[in-house]
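Let us work through a complete example step by step.
Step 1: write down the sequence.
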Amino acid sequence: MAVGRSSPSPSVRVEVLGPLRLVVDGACVDVPGPKRRAVLALLAIAEGRTVTVDHLMDALWPSEVPESGRQALHNQVSRLRGHLGPAVARFETRQDGYRLALGPAELDAAQARALLATARTTAQRDPDGAFRLLQEAHGLWRGPVLADLTDITPVATAVEEYAQLRHEVTDALIAGAVATGQADGIVGLAAASSAAAPLREPAVLLFMRALAVTGQAPEALRVGREYRHRLVDETGLDPSPALDQLEREIITGADGSASGRHEAPGAAAGPGMPARPTTRLIGRAAQVAALHRLLAAERLVTLVGPGGVGKTRVALEVARQSGTVTVLLLAPVTDPAAIPHALAAALNLKVDRGDVLSACVAVLSGRPGLLVVDNCEHLLDGARDMVDTILSTCSGISLLATSREPLGLAAEHVSRLAPLPLPRPDRDPSRVPSVALFLDRARRVRPGPPPTPAQLRTVADIVHRLDGMPLAIELAAGRLSTFSLADLRGRLDRSLDLLGGGSPSADSRHRTLRATVEWSYQLLTEDERRLFRHLSVFVDGVDLDTAERLAADLDLESDPGSTLARLVDASMIEASFEGATRFRMLETLRAFGLDRLAATGEDKAAAERLLRWAVELTSWIGAVMATEREPEADAVLRRELPNLRAAWRLVRGQGPLDDAVSMVTALFEAVAYRDLVEIRDWAAELADDPALAGQPGAVAVLGVAAEAAYHRGDYHRADRLSRTGLEKAADSTGSWHCLMVLSVADLARGAYDDVVEHSLAAVDLAGPQRENLGIAALAKAYSGDLDEARRLNDRGLAAAVSPSMLSWGAYVAGEIDSLAGHSEPAERHYLRAIDLARASGATFLVGVATVGLHSVRACAGRVHEALDGYRDVIDYFARNGNWTHLWTALRNLADLLRRLGDDEPAALIDAAADQAPDAPAVEGTRPAPDRSHGAEPTATATATPIPGRPAVLDVARQAIERNLRRL
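Step 2: predict the structure and record it as tokens.
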């Protein structure tokens, strides 16, 4: 027998997700008697916490504890110890009660919760693994939960919590099955989940998705219709817009049914349209109605109040109830110069040249409605100037702004949003909005029976101490996952005493809210606080991978995924699962995090991490855009643009010039082929910086800035920057950028021999996989050498890898065949170019290939088809607000109309396009439009007032219909 070695500790497992079961050393142990089983259940659901003797006796004898109650409890405890046998040491006697020591995997409910949390944090990088974890979690339920013990109040409360946990696990399991193409195996489960709670919308939507992706779309739509009728009949409420959206996806086949995999709805939503809030707006109906009345009489209403009072939520509710509305969210914007770009994004407006704000004003002037401008306080001057410009030029627009202080304009009507009303002694507390908000949010973290009168009085005291501030109330209610109401009130009282104060001149409610946030912050571990602080520098949140890499870089002692999950649970960050998982902070919390960074002396380190992230991300984007994974890189670039914008302003203000150079040069593909105009502005800004001289990457920067100038139609600046760069060139990368732009600038002015020379020199530097052989081919084609053009382009196509380079080659092939009079192969090439460009986000290529497509149809004599095509594309771009491409289509329609002898509308369209700030520069990559079939615009035509946008569309549509009738 070995000496000095102890035998392993006996294992213990308690299972509560079904009939109560005790397992000791792998063997089931029968625990007879309802009181004894109740004691075991109460100790188990405490999950390792001490359960006081008083709590146990109150639970066992709720009406009245008998005189022998303490002795009777002692007898049950003694017998329960005997059931534990060799594991009796797990049953610990404490000073005021008892504790059952269970590890994380020794209580099935805790195990299920942990599996769910792990699955959520790993779903993006390992969806199949997450699905297996969810299957394991779901399998832990064995039947009715503790059915023989539900007359014991704490057990009944736990049963309700476990029911909610099962809902969450089941929903996640069904969603995981749909996402991983395994929906066939869970349709029955989805049906049962929906039937068990027929008014629970998430279960209904998941059942519909499971049906749709398994080929049962009609059945899915039937389920949706029945749910809609049932909800109205039983509650008088309408479903959320999510049901309408899902029904549209199923009808159009966009629900993922073709592949059996599902992308979360809203993944492609525009940046200016926030998702529908997931919680009810409580206590603000009067304020929302008052704002509607004000906006009917006033052009500008500013909703003013302290941070956390709910300004954004109220404004979005007004927007939701309005007709034509645009929502501009300024919270992610950190630079006043970026405000027009953010407005353009909210309008879904692509501006290739000219002043961005003027382009936005031109769109708004023809689109009466409501513009909501949210979170103005950190950009007050810039927001004021933008609002003033819109008010003075767009008579049909009303504006609703939110800010912590007024904008200071003469036309402004200031409406102050107060905290929620507080309970009075003579009124039922549950009907007061501040209490109702607390109770609603509390039920989400601790489901259970309605509060007792004593509990309502405690809640009333809590919301009084929080001054009725919605954010403070929501944060405090979230703490009920950890504390009882009495504990919450006691801790809040002490924390406010410790953390209150601040500037004597500050608004008292603001100081109270700050104390509440500080209090929630102090409840976090040091690792959680540190991660929270460093996440606050990301103005638009982060994805899961970035959050975990940041946590790893901070060298946290705890698991990064668990730390992140804890921050979500603590309501310090929000998790969004629309598309890729993303973690964001409320703006008030982000501002608090930035303050704490400065207080701890970590602000410089956090800024350096943000810049390092931006440099690494843009480098990755630049490298991946040259591969077949280009669409993935494009999606990441567009999703992370607000954070990259913040990093850019930071690097220009205090960061190393090398980082700015790295960011701009890595984003050449974005400048060249995408409608991200502000990145072109970055390149121009950096090229004009005197400190750039002597930098290793200066030549490449000049090349990227030259490309940006080319897209603005400033070919002289493009030529000058490129030639300056070549004179200073010391490396092939910078030379390639400059030669690339020189070749397209040469093409614009018809210097075809120079185009070929510069393009072939660029091929020697970068290889045949880039667009340079295609550019040389265009020069050869436009100069009449079609055979050599085909040879050059075929060589480039054979080496092309990325979708945009394949699109470019297809476009060039279409141009060559078009010039050769081969309309059918030209059309095929153009269509392939458009498909590839759309898939990769290369919007510039979509535009030029669409131009070629309609041109070749018209030149091939298919006038009726060309006019039909113009009608469809004009309607499509008008519906989507994409005036950049719409102007291109209108210009080409004008060329066709002129060939048909319809000169007057052609002249009007051209005049309007020439004056439009968001119309793209007329490209010089093929000969100028042939006007030989019609006269130049007459003096009468040029003297005619230039029509507005709606009028231009009317002119174009009427011309199309008129000429279709003539054919």
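Step 3: interpret the result. The longest helix spans residues 153-179.
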